[in-house]
Structures are given as C-alpha cells and as structure tokens.
Amino acid sequence: MDVTEWLSRCPLVAILRGVRPDEVEAIGEALVAEGVVILEVPLNSPEPVESVRRLAARLGDRALVGAGTFRREAEVEAVAEAGGRLLVTPHADPALVRAAKARGMVAMPGFLTPAEAFGLLDAGADALKLFPAEAGGPPMLKALRAVLPKGTPLLPVGGVDARSLPAWREAGASGYGCGSSLYRPGDTADAVAAKARALIAAL
C-alpha cells in the first residue's frame, strides 16, 4: 500500500520516542488493535533499530513500520535492513528522501517553508511533515495547501493532541503525527491504547 492507503485506514502516526525494544512489541500490538497502523521509532530512542526489527517482524504485515529523526544515509540503510519501510525526518534533506526511495521506503520528511516542501517533493517524498506544526498552527497549513500540488499528503507534527485535531483537520491535514499525546516513555500498552482511543474519538 502507498502512504495514502495507510492514512485512509487511520490518519494517526504513532511517534514512539523513547520506547525500548523489550516493550515495543506490546505497545505496537496495542496500537494496531486500536486501529493505529503507522508506527515510527525515532532514532534517538534506546536501541531504535532493534525496536524497528521487532516491530517489523511482528506487525509488518499489518502496519507501516519505520523510524524517524534520520540524519545520515547510513541510518536509512540500517533501518531498511531491519525491515523498516518508513522514513520520517525533522528537517528538509532531499538526499535522505532519495536514499529512502532507492530502498523502496515511504518517505515522509519534515519541512517548514514552501521552498523546502517543493524541494522534497522533487526528490520523491511521498508525504510531508509540517514541523514544528505549533509554530504556524492550522492557518499555516491551510495556506500551504493552496500552493502545494493537489493531493499532497500533509501531516502536522508537534503539539498535536485530541484538543487540536479538529482545527488541523479543518485546515486540510491528511494525517497527524502524535508523540507525547500518544506515548511517553514508561507508558504501559494499556495506557497507550487508551490514549489512542481518545485521539481516534477526537477525529
């Protein structure tokens, strides 16, 4: 499936920053059971590639599993070899997008300006992550919608929670990257499932 099909199943991207390999499978299972099927392990988490490996082995047929906070092409290679199929970055780096696409991954790089957005799309990005989204708010996303190619998947990330979801949706968001509103280090699988239900209800 391409990224739009995954987003049509559930528009939430679970950002599991700080998750550990020994807990990631239970948390991933809880999220998928609630319908959240895009799972991102940021690379500044403990043993992130091992967490990706475990998620991909257990949930790869039911979820789009990958990593975030990429900075180097070697990291793309490591995550791809672990079974990761999603690249998310906090910044606009066309080289990382091209590296991900060369390995058959879905590329969802971060951007903040129209110039960055167009450069990333030219490099082959499948979707764009507006980050930090709270810096411009929903009005910024709505303005970007007017100039970016029709149908470009746009996902705000940063400060997105159940309270702000309706405003982002009204502004034209295709999906939503949810970090602390969905998972904080130390959360149990049950706690994450409850947070997922609250966010889905807000949609």
Brief characterization of the structure:
The protein has 203 residues and is of the alpha/beta class. 46% of the residues lie in helices and 15% in strands.
Structure in words:
The chain has 203 residues and is an alpha/beta fold. It has one domain: TIM Barrel (Alpha-Beta Barrel). It contains nine helices and nine strands. The strands form two sheets. A six-stranded parallel beta sheet has the order 5-4-3-2-1-9, with helices on both faces. Strands 6-7-8 form a three-stranded parallel beta sheet, covered by helices on one side. Helix 4 links the parallel strand 3 and strand 4. The longest helix is centred in the N-terminal third of the chain and has 14 residues. It is globular. It is an enzyme of class 4 (lyase). Pfam families: Aldolase. Pathway: Carbohydrate acid metabolism. Homotrimer.
SSE blueprint and pairings:
Elements: H1 3-9, E1 12-15, H2 21-34, E2 38-42, H3 48-59, E3 64-68, H4 73-81, E4 86-88, H5 94-102, E5 106-108, E6 110-111, H6 114-123, E7 128-130, H7 137-147, E8 154-156, H8 165-171, E9 176-178, H9 189-202
Parallel strand pairs: 1-2, 1-9, 2-3, 3-4, 4-5, 6-7, 7-8
Helix pairs in contact: 2-3, 2-9, 4-5, 5-6, 7-8
